[in-house]
Amino acid sequence: MNEMMQNADGAEGRALEYGFDPREKRPMFPNARGPVEPLGEREEADHFALVYENQAEQFATVVPYVRQGLERGEHCMYIYAENTRKEVLEALRSGGIDVDAALDDGRLSLYSAGETYLDGGEFDGDKADALLEAAMEEAVAEYEGFRVTAEETWLTHDKAAQEAFATCETRVNGLLDGEASTALCQYNRDRLPPSVIESVIETHPYLIYDSTVCQNVYYTPPAEYFGPDRPSRDNERKLQTLVDRTTARETLQTDELAQRQLYAIAADPHRSFEEKIDDLLAFGRELFGLEIGGIARVDPTTDFYRIETISGDHDQLEPGTEIPLSDTYCREVIENESGTTVPKPTELSSATTDLPETAGNDRVQVYLGTCVPIEGDLDRTFFFTSSDLSDGAFTEKERVFFQLMGQLVKYELEQRQHERLLRDLYETVADTEASFDAKIERLLELGSERFGLEVGYFTQTDDDGTFEIDAAVGDHDEIQTGTTDTIRNTYCEKLLASPGPISVTDAAEVGWTDDPAYERFGLDAYFATTVHVGSEEYGTLCFGSETTRSRPFSEAERTYLDLMGQWASYELDQRRRRRYLQESYEITSDPALSFEEKLERLLELGSERFGLEMGGLNYLPTWDGAFKLEKGIGFDVDPDEELWTDPGTGCFCRQAITADAPVETTDASETEWADDEVYREFGLTTYLGTKISSGSGPYGTLWFGSTEARDRPFSDAERTFIELMGQWVGYEIERRDHRQSQERLYEITADSDRSFDEKVERLLDLGRERFDLDMGFFLEKQGDEFRVIKTCGTDLEEGVATISANPGQYCKQTITVNSPVGIQDAEAVGWDDDPLYEKYGLGCYLGTRVTDGDDIYGSVCFADNGAREREFSDAEYAFLDLIGQWISYELERDERERRLERSNERLEESNKRLEQFAYAASHDLQEPLRMVSSYLQLLEKRYGDDLGGDGEEFLEFAVDGADRMREMIDGLLQYSRVETKGNPLEPVDLDDVFESVREDLRVQIEETGAEITADPLPPVRGDASQLRQVFQNLLANAIKYSGDEPPRIHVSAERRIRGRTRVISVEDEGIGIEPDEQERIFDIFDRLHSREEYDGTGIGLALCERIVERHDGDIWVDAEPGAGSTFSFTLRPPTEGES
């Protein structure tokens, strides 16, 4: 058990996060924290002491300790003293432990302190040790291990027992020596005296306090604890502990400070690459105490050395300085170069190395440097130097830290290189103005630069064993754009035969130099990947060199090649997908093609897309029946011959019509599909099919196939393409069926030779066919029942039979909602308790309510005895709604016609009475009025001189009243005869009407100084004499109500686009009208002014309104007091025949 305290990764200074056994990663002390050292072979690793201050702290450690032991199959013993047995068990249960099961099977046992430590009334250490040893031996023999935890508060008031127990605790470590036993002692700090806690600290190698696991530096091994030199050894150990901890803290603080500063430089997102390198070099100079720090670019093959960055002052070492590599200390570093990693630093001084006196080497006394290999670029050297020889002798820690800095420099350089190349790659592929060919050529250039290989090429291979180079970069006689040749004896042949990319740095090492491909192309280094379009092989993307490569291709380079290959595959796939989608769109959107022509072209396109010679649309008339080939290509079958198939084993189309995704097989001969009739009769070996839905229900399948097996699986793009084709075909079929049903519905409803009952009967037949349901009903709601008005497919007697509306399903529910109700399976939705279900067995139902105006009339519905296998589609709901709307409209129209007929009768009666009144007014009322006027005139003529002043005034009042009475009677006669005495409506020239009215008003115009202007007025359809009355009344009013200024009147016309009406307006600048009086001015006999202010009868505007209404128009006024008025009315233009 002594390895149980080690961390999961074996590192020092970790919290006890993974429990006793790191191999199991199970938390024993999940709330504990704090650094502990791995114990290795220490024997004290199984003895823990928990020092706590309250029950929560106590059980937070003890419960996980017990739980882990039980989970591992160990026997756990709990000795309680401070808590009761009930409290302990409750705590264990709250911690997720099945206490009852553990007690029953013996894995858990609980004892009181009186049953263990104090057996016999007082503590006996030897007896306690014997008891513990016996329990441990028994548990280890039967279980996976043994662990004990004990509450030690029984020591509180017994000092002798405390001293004896401390001695006993030191012996426990020996008892626990082994792989299967641990002990956790529990001490309540608040209840036990300090001396006991001190003994606890001295006798336990590990303590848990304040949720922290602590390695006990004050632990005293048993040999020392009982030895004679214990006091002096204790003092020595404690003093040395203080010194060690202080020294370790200072070293740790220094190392941590350096690492934090290094991390701060590297992780700062606001620093640029150049700033990070500058800060890193400055930090290194300070850390190592050296004057100069720098980075140089090197190439040992050409003896090239150029300084890129320098930190510190040096006359001859500046950025851009080029020196032969052999004349620098860096030559030693390059010789230690270790491939792709940063090697350990090279440490040199003038005392050990003889260098030429060039480029300031005379001033370099101490040198610390390393090589930084960079993928896809020249290597670098990273170094620090000093002119002071005393600055040498670097510690191992400094050399390790310098290597860490070198790794950071390598990371930053490669990150910059990687980001630049990725940016170039992204900019290339994202260039919307560049063609695919231009992008490929640029990718080849980028790849050649990235991999350090001078040749790059992109090929397309063919099934006939040939290839063509689509694009090539670099100078190579055999590798040129447009080259076409057999793939035999080429590098591409090797690539296509391999399971993945090929990377060769030296052709001789892999045995290629004797190969015909090498003899032909001479490529010593080769790096290539295969390009696929979907699941099909398209060609290759290759890079090569006629010289070997010094180091292997890195993961970053492999990723870069993979990214280029993925982009090429994606782009090619998108190009092909766009081409097929474009072609399918052109086919489906061509208005000149019928559905059958579009379907045939789609089948041909799909056959080409999938490389399969057959394709077809299969229709399934009945769910359990056979499929009918509605349209097919690639069959040797007469076009007029019907082809039926029945894939009865759940394969081919039978599987496709039930699946939500396309169904496929590339070789049916190797599957259970080979037993199907379709395979046995037609030899259909490869198959790709998808379900066709009409609405939300299945119609059939769209499929493609071949009698030959396919050498590759169908790709996601191919499955998506057939799904898109299937969706379009389903949409077209649904639209075709819906259109045909609508055409028949319109034919039925528009047939003027058929009665309403006949139309309803035919609509019920049409609905049964459209919904594939046996029964149709037209029902009228009468109280709690529905009377059968019309029915099809049943033996119910029309006009007599009734259907109950209770308990509330079927028709009762239909009339309560605003949308159609469709039930696929009445029993499944709980409608089987309805009398309709019990009596007629209506397993499925589709209905909508019928209204008569604002009232609910009943419902039109369709049903079948059996449940329906598919849901009703949106198109079916829409069609039923059309039937319901038409019936509702017909019922409402019939009611409107009856109301209109009654209204016409009343209107005719009213007109007759009005005619009688008009006759009476024109004859019976006029005669007495003429008599009154005549006698008043005779009275004035004979006795005028004898009447005197008052008599003459009274006589004038009587004559004036008679005249006004005559004017009112004349106006009333005109008002009543607008409809009965008007002329037929015909084309009228409004300009002529306006001019004649202006001539009639010439005297008033001259007397008032009125100015009347008019725009050209349009021809209208009307009664010229009545329109003349309208203009005369409006113009006369405009003159009359002009106020103190001379009248200014303008007549205009405007055409309304909507309604094809003409708006005629008469605008004046007179006294205007109050807003609240603008409505009542059109009421007959309603006057806004007294007769003393303005004369008139109050009939003129009412007459205008009645005339405009006869012309099917409207009249209104826009006015403001003191700002004039504009009277406008609408008239209709002449019809095309009249104009």
From TrEMBL:
Q: Which CDD domains match?
A: HisKA
In the record, what terms sit under GO molecular function? phosphorelay sensor kinase activity
For this UniProt entry, which residues form the secretion signal?
A: none
Q: Which reaction does it catalyse?
A: ATP + protein L-histidine = ADP + protein N-phospho-L-histidine
Query: Which EC number(s) are documented for this chain?
Result: 2.7.13.3
Q: Which PROSITE patterns does its entry note?
A: HIS_KIN (PS50109)
InterPro entries tied to this protein: GAF (IPR003018), GAF-like_dom_sf (IPR029016), HATPase_C_sf (IPR036890), HATPase_dom (IPR003594), His_kinase_dom (IPR005467), HisK_dim/P_dom (IPR003661), HisK_dim/P_sf (IPR036097), MEDS_domain (IPR025847)
Origin, by domain of life?
A: Archaea
The segment(s) forming the Histidine kinase domain are 920-1135
Q: Which UniProt keywords apply?
A: Coiled coil, Kinase, Phosphoprotein, Transferase
Coiled-coil boundaries: 893-920
Report the protein name in the record.
histidine kinase
Origin species, per record, is Natrinema versiforme
